[in-house]
Each structure stands twice: as structure tokens, then as C-alpha cells.
Design brief:
Length: 209
């Protein structure tokens, strides 16, 4: 069962985090853009939310289970279908890029979600993932305060190494990684730099082919 209740009940609180932390959001977008290299011709964001990442990264299609989020994204001009990551309602080889940003912690079956992403990607297509690494300072902070968070109470956090292993098992390779957010988002006074690799930044972007 998709963990959508917080996003059904609190869409305004979701948006408020980005409004309070614009430097973190900007840093995350730029990190994803670094591994993306070029916008998609036909791109799908799974868990599109309100379109915060789809729009700057050039994704015109979205999948989203939470109805209030769907309305926000549609008003922003994104073509959104209601559904879940484990059962994508699209034909094989439909997209050249698929994006998941801070979504993998809310799906019930991450392995099935990666297999579905691979199914709908055209030959040579790319899967882009943005995650908060559970081993990072922000990831550990979220884990310590998980019970207090409306959104992360039922989330499953993954390390970057765990995600890379699951991606490889689903048939992905040719990974490229970048990282950002080297302190706490609430303390940022400017966007953080984007650096190759992972292991120091709390937000990690992965490109898998």
C-alpha cells in the first residue's frame, strides 16, 4: 500500500519545506542536473509531487498517488497520471529518462519499482535518482527524529551503496554520482557546491543507464 497519507493531508507543509530551505532545494536541483547532463526528450518523474523537480529538469510527465499533489502538478503544466511506482501505467520503452527524487523511501517494493522503471525506459535510457543517504548527517538526523516527522514517520531510508546494489540487480549500470548539502539544510545561507561521487554530502544524485 503506497504511503501517501501525509501527502494527501499536508500538501501545504510539503511546499513549505522548500520555501523555508531554498538553498537546499537549489543545491539538489543542480546536483541532479549535473548527472543528467541534458534534458529528456520525453521524461517521467515518479512521485512528481507538486513538480518542484520535474519543472526545472525538463520532465513533462509525472506519476503521483496523492490527489492534492496531482492537482498542483497539473496546474504547473505537467501531464500527471495517478499510480504507484511498482505498477507503472505506461507501455514499455516509452521514456528516455525516468526521475525519482526523495521518492524511494516511500515505495513499498523498491526492487519492483526499479524493474518497472527499466521496463518503461527506451534502450539507452537513463534513470535519475535523488536521495538523502541514510549514512549522512542529514540522514542520521532524520532517523533520530523519524517518529516526530509527519512525512518521514513511515519512510524507509537507504544508503547510497544499498541503492546501487538494487539498481545493479535490476539491470542498471554505467553509474554516475554527485553529492551536495554538507551541513544541515536549515543552516544554509547559500547553495552548497556540487561534487562528484558520494560519501560526504547528504543529498546524492545517481544516474543509471
Amino acid at each position: 500500500m503506497a504511503r501517501t497519507e501525509p501527502f494527501e493531508k499536508h500538501p501545504r507543509r510539503y511546499e513549505a519545506w522548500f520555501e523555508r530551505n531554498p538553498h537546499a532545494w537549489h543545491s539538489e536541483v543542480e546536483t541532479l542536473r549535473m548527472v543528467q547532463e541534458q534534458p529528456p526528450r520525453r521524461g517521467l518523474e515518479i512521485g512528481v509531487g507538486t513538480g518542484r523537480f520535474a519543472l526545472p529538469l525538463g520532465f513533462g510527465y509525472g506519476l503521483e498517488p496523492a490527489r492534492p499533489m496531482i492537482e498542483h502538478a497539473r496546474q504547473a503544466g505537467i501531464t500527471v497520471v495517478r499510480g504507484i511506482a511498482e505498477r507503472l501505467p505506461f507501455a514499455p520503452q516509452t521514456f528516455d529518462q525516468v526521475l525519482l527524487v526523495t521518492t524511494i523511501c516511500f515505495v513499498d517494493d523498491l526492487e519492483a519499482s526499479f524493474r518497472e522503471a527499466r521496463r518503461v525506459l527506451a534502450s539507452g535510457g537513463q534513470l535519475l535518482i535523488g536521495l538523502v543517504d541514510r549514512e549522512s548527517p542529514v540522514g542520521q538526523h532524520y532517523l533520530r527524529h523519524q517518529a516526530e516527522s509527519v512525512f518521514y514517520r513511515e519512510a524507509t531510508f537507504y544508503s547510497t551503496d544499498q541503492v546501487l546494489d538494487l539498481l545493479a540487480a535490476a539491470g542498471f549500470g554505467a553509474f554516475r554520482l554527485a553529492q551536495t548539502i554538507f551541513g544541515m539544510p536549515a543552516e544554509m545561507t547559500a547553495p552548497d557546491p556540487v561534487r562528484e561521487g558520494y560519501g560526504k554530502g547528504s543529498f546524492v544524485a545517481i544516474r543509471a543507464q
